[in-house]
Specification:
133 residues, mainly alpha, 2 domains, two-stranded antiparallel sheet, 7 helices, 39% helix
Length: 133
């Protein structure tokens, strides 16, 4: 049990009572979507360099929010590596659960109106997101 889980139990009496009675902790889940996997494949320095990214249906989300950087977008989509059941997580409510298509750098580039790092190119796939040494 980590400090986040302890804080969660302290703030939610029902979960604390269940834990004390049964020893079971609330379930956790890892945020996952094709867009999250693509953004995690891009190094943090490049994520900060990608400006004005807009979410849309084509990226697997039912909204059109604009974020100042790809890093801010990733922090919105996946606030933590593990989310505790019952924690507020607005991006999950907006995720299109039926979206299965791959998200490529080319698609991300089409949804960026600001600066795009030249060395990332325009049509590379997710597995080529990291620049080669």
């Amino acid at each position: 049990m980590n400090s986040r889980m302890m804080r969660h139990l302290a703030r939610r009496p029902r979960d604390m009572m269940r834990y004390q009675a049964t020893g079971k902790l609330p379930a956790t889940t890892s945020p996952d979507s094709p867009l999250i996997r693509l953004l995690q494949a891009i190094p943090p320095r490049e994520r900060y360099a990608i400006h004005a990214v807009r979410l849309s249906q084509r990226l697997g989300y039912r909204c059109s929010h604009t974020f100042p950087s790809a890093e801010a977008l990733l922090r919105y989509l996946a606030p933590n590596t593990e989310m505790i059941e019952g924690e507020p997580w607005p991006a999950e409510a907006l995720r299109d659960k039926g979206f299965r298509g791959p998200v490529t750098l080319e698609m991300l580039r089409a949804h960026t109106t600001g600066h795009w790092p030249a060395h990332l190119g325009d049509g590379e796939r997710c597995d080529r997101a990291r620049p080669e040494p």
